[in-house]
Amino acid sequence: MYDNSTFSQKHPIRVGLVGTGYTAKLRAEALLHDQRSHLVAVVGHTPEKTQAFARDYQIMVVNSWQQLVEQDNIDLVMICTVTRDHGIIARQALKNGKHVVVEYPLSLNVAEAEELIALAKAQKKFLHVEHIELLGGLHQALKQHLSQVGQVFFVRYNTTKPEHPAPRKWTYNHELFGFPLIGALSRLHRLVDLFGKVVSVNCHNRFWQIEKEYYQSCFCDTHLSFNSGLLAHVVYGKGETLWQAERRFEVHGEDGGLIFDGDKGVLVQRGETKPIEVGARRGLLAKDTTMVLDHLIDGTPLYVTPEESLYTLKVADAARRSAEMGLTVIVEDETQP
Asked: From 3.30.360.10, 3.40.50.2020, 1.20.1250.20, 3.30.750.24, which CATH number describes the 134-279+314-335 domain?
């Protein structure tokens, strides 16, 4: 779809980073350890933090993301900044002939995400939406053992994170993070990847806040009905009103169950319970970065497509609309991956 003939050991992929946070640091370290890439520049929100980031990785500072996406010495833009800005930066990078890697979600807006995928194809440029939850030990263990539980009829996925006090940062900001299940799109994407098409969504969401832009807690309770007949219950919450941290995934099938609590898992069948080995969660962004370089240089297939991420975004947006209207929302057939 795009020309990758210019990339080689003699002509590495030149990368510009948007963002200086935790994800950007992991991206930078992965890029610097791979001779097929050359990290050129970074842009961030805070001048002092951006200068320190640039010193740590010996790269140049650019004054704005608008300037970064226009630079001739950059082939690939990696977007590791607040969720609100993903779409607009990706659009301008693609328009300027850059390949793009962006953390999920591609955009907070479904229509914009569709436009970006179409734009990447028209520009013949690579667009990758990171979904490292699919590479992690939990997801791989789920895929490996799913066939042993027979027809799956119910799934429960709970992730809650108490924080006392809640940090006043972008992940607790309505505009910067977006609706909880859009900003935390991986909670739904794991289910869609495993179980396919969603028919309907019913979601209830609540915020606790003392100022307009930032909140101290959110709690999102969502029920999904899948085309297969599977029912799923997803709970996502964070902040000061929560008192017990939980990361639990349950799969209930006609012949058994899979229960993952934190980093421990078991397969439960009639008369026996077997432990399941769950791989580590560390190093996944580095793995994603390596796979991106493999794909750009050698054409190696990636583990997820932008269209698959878009479909989950549509499901998450249905959850948003359901929460706002207090009604069950049907996910239209045309959104099938």
From this structure: 3.30.360.10
Query: Residue 248: is it exposed, middle or buried by C-beta count within 10 angstroms (0-12/13-18/19+)?
Result: middle
CATH of 13-130, one of 3.40.50.1000, 3.40.50.720, 3.90.1580.10, 3.60.15.10: 3.40.50.720
Supply the pTM of this predicted model. 0.94
Answer for the pair 110, 317: CB distance below 8 angstroms, yes or no.
yes
Q: What pLDDT, in 10s, does the model give residues 51-74?
A: 999 999 999 999 999 999 999 999
User: How far does Cα 62 stand from its chain's mean position?
Assistant: 26
b/e burial code for range 191-218 (CB count within 10 A of at least 16 → b): bbbbbeebbebbbebebeeeeeebbbbb
